[in-house]
């Protein structure tokens, strides 16, 4: 069986975890702070903007809390996205509004976002599908013009760039995921970036029970360890030094991981280029860099599920990610999005991770050719 996704972890990560064990401290501490600073340097932003959390989902919930979303507010987001977005929206009392995506790129255009904006819209949440930055620069310009907050879900885009800027630096806030399926893996974990300095300081308070930190002006005497000042009601959302130590190693290895994914995507392109009935992923536009998180093909909706079933029977897992959120009954949304429906019904993601061999790609491509040909 070929793995659909699999992290690449080794001795260097084990040694880093052993160092944390030896330090006697495994919670949020110096390793977490170091990982935040390293990730901030990777993005090209000040380190005080970046906060290591236990998940990207926690970051999304926290971002919407920082924005003060509430009853009567709306958040526009693509229908092809992960469910953390609408879940976070509804948890604030606000309402998710789903916009269209291009059925091939699975990213929204600025016009798709603008069409979904109403007088009640307070924020826009955008996913970079499969690691492709999409039209993020144009969407950021639209949000600035309309006075809307922009939150980037850069979970798929840890090494993606557009117009010389890292994905996740266009919006007011951004989140990254480091779960076991991602390109950079910490097991569980995520990063939140907050551009506004005051909101960034508040994010740190809200990530640790609402307690004031020394930078916020409260420093108890060193002997009075039980003293604290609580300014807000909040939860504990922080990451820890064990997962941060793994993240620091993975971040150093990230260029190697992305280069390998790019090679594998190019090999899929070569092996599948002339296959009738299959449309390959869109090329990465000039000036953009992709993390190559997903490799997706499009086949006719009448056969997509059967193709996935037959690949599975041959020991090749194929999947579809993400959504379609506008069809999820619990969200209570009644809208017609034909382009998103086409994306959801015709897309199939093939195995892609840095642990794949060339022979694995050849096997997947050969099996897909046989199935489509039959």
UniProtKB/TrEMBL annotation:
Entry-linked SUPFAM superfamilies: PLP-dependent transferases (SSF53383)
Reported cofactor(s): pyridoxal 5'-phosphate
Alphabetized CDD domains for the sequence: AHBA_syn
Family statement: Belongs to the DegT/DnrJ/EryC1 family.
Presence of keyword Transport: no
PANTHER family for this protein: DTDP-4-AMINO-4,6-DIDEOXYGALACTOSE TRANSAMINASE (PTHR30244:SF34), TRANSAMINASE (PTHR30244)
Residue ranges crossing the lipid bilayer per the database entry: none
Protein name, UniProt field: DegT/DnrJ/EryC1/StrS family aminotransferase
UniProt keyword annotations, A-Z: Aminotransferase, Pyridoxal phosphate, Transferase
Pfam families named among the record's database cross-references: DegT_DnrJ_EryC1
GO molecular function annotation: transaminase activity
Domain of life: Bacteria
Organism: Saccharopolyspora rosea
């Amino acid at each position: 069986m070929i793995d659909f996704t699999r992290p690449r972890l080794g001795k260097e990560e084990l040694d880093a975890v052993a160092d944390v064990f030896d330090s006697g401290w495994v919670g949020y501490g110096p390793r977490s702070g170091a990982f935040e600073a390293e990730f901030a340097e990777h993005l090209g932003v000040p380190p005080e903007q970046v906060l290591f959390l236990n998940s990207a989902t926690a970051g999304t919930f926290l971002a919407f809390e920082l924005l003060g979303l509430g009853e009567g507010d709306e958040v526009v987001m693509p229908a092809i996205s992960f469910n953390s977005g609408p879940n976070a929206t509804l948890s604030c009392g606000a309402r998710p509004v789903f916009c269209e995506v291009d059925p091939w790129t699975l990213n929204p255009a600025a016009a798709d976002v603008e069409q979904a904006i109403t007088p009640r819209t307070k924020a826009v949440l955008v996913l970079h599908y499969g690691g492709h930055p999409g039209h993020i620069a144009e969407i950021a310009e639209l949000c600035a013009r309309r006075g809307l907050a922009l939150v980037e879900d850069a979970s798929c885009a840890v090494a993606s760039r557009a117009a010389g800027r890292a994905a996740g630096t266009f919006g007011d806030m951004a989140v990254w995921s480091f779960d076991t399926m991602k390109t950079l893996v910490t097991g569980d974990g995520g990063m939140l970036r907050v551009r506004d300095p005051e909101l960034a300081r508040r994010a740190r308070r809200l990530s640790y029970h609402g307690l004031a930190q020394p930078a916020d002006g409260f420093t108890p005497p060193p002997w009075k360890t039980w003293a604290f000042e609580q300014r807000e009601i909040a939860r504990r959302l922080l990451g820890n030094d064990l997962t941060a130590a793994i993240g620091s190693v993975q971040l150093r290895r990230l260029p190697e991981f992305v280069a390998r994914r790019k090679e594998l995507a190019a090999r899929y392109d070569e092996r599948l280029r002339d296959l009738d009935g299959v449309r390959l992923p869109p090329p990465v536009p000039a000036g953009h860099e992709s993390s190559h998180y997903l490799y997706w093909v499009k086949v006719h909706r009448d056969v997509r599920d059967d193709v996935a079933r037959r690949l599975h029977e041959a020991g090749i897992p194929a999947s579809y990610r993400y959504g379609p959120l506008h069809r999820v009954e619990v969200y209570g949304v009644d809208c017609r999005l034909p382009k998103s429906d086409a994306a959801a019904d015709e897309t199939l993601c093939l195995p892609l991770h840095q642990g794949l061999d060339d022979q694995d790609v050849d096997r997947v491509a050969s099996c897909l050719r046989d199935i489509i040909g039959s």
